[in-house]
Automatic annotation (TrEMBL):
Protein family (similarity comment): Belongs to the ELP6 family.
Protein known as: Elongator complex protein 6
Pathway(s) of this molecule: tRNA modification; 5-methoxycarbonylmethyl-2-thiouridine-tRNA biosynthesis
A Pfam match: ELP6
GO cellular component: elongator holoenzyme complex
Example GO BP: tRNA wobble uridine modification
Length: 182
């Protein structure tokens, strides 16, 4: 839709999302080459960071540097998002969009719920309020979950969201044509 997009993909690789997008008629590779899409491949960044290759390659700190530091704040990740979506001078793109898949991965990597909620708060202040854009976040939730940190993040996001889409499998079990319900 002509929007500048920052995609923080913590769950899958770029090639996975590119294949899915092609099935929907969207070419992520072309969007990235045009500068419309800034893609953070979290899986690769984590490995590069753990093996000490990322900072050597780019000369800049990793957006996921909290993994190897004692502090669990997500300032570097927010800085990456802000830089990716702030238009340089005359912005040729429509409102920016931040996509995060899957926010719960940050908790699994050692970020605290407060750090994750602070990250989302600052992203909302910058992307939604200042730049007049949108944020789309995927987070998993389960009524029977014993993961209190994840449920704290989910509940807080529910209170601050304009639109919530709950997607779940069918209660009756597997069906050939329908996989779940919204």
């Amino acid at each position: 839709a002509g929007c500048k997009v920052c995609f923080v993909a913590l769950l899958q690789s770029f090639s996975h999302y590119n294949v899915v997008a092609q099935k929907l008629g969207v070419n992520l590779t072309a969007a990235r080459e045009r500068g419309q899409l800034v893609f953070l491949e979290g899986l690769r960044s984590c490995l590069d960071l753990l093996f000490g290759e990322e900072e050597e390659q780019s000369g800049e700190p990793s957006p996921l540097q909290f993994i190897s530091k004692s502090a669990s704040d997500l300032k570097a990740l927010f800085g990456f998002v802000r830089t990716a979506l702030t238009p340089p001078g005359s912005g040729s793109w429509k409102g920016p969009v931040l996509l995060v898949d899957d926010l719960g991965v940050l908790l699994s990597l050692g970020a605290t719920p407060v750090a994750v909620l602070d990250f989302i708060h600052y992203c909302r202040a910058t992307v939604c309020s200042q730049l007049k854009g949108n944020i789309v976040v995927l987070v998993h939730s389960n009524e029977d979950s014993e993961d209190e940190e994840n449920e704290l993040v989910v509940n807080s996001l529910c209170h601050h969201s304009d639109l919530i889409l709950w997607v779940e499998g069918l209660a009756t079990g597997f069906c050939k044509d329908v996989h779940g319900e919204v």
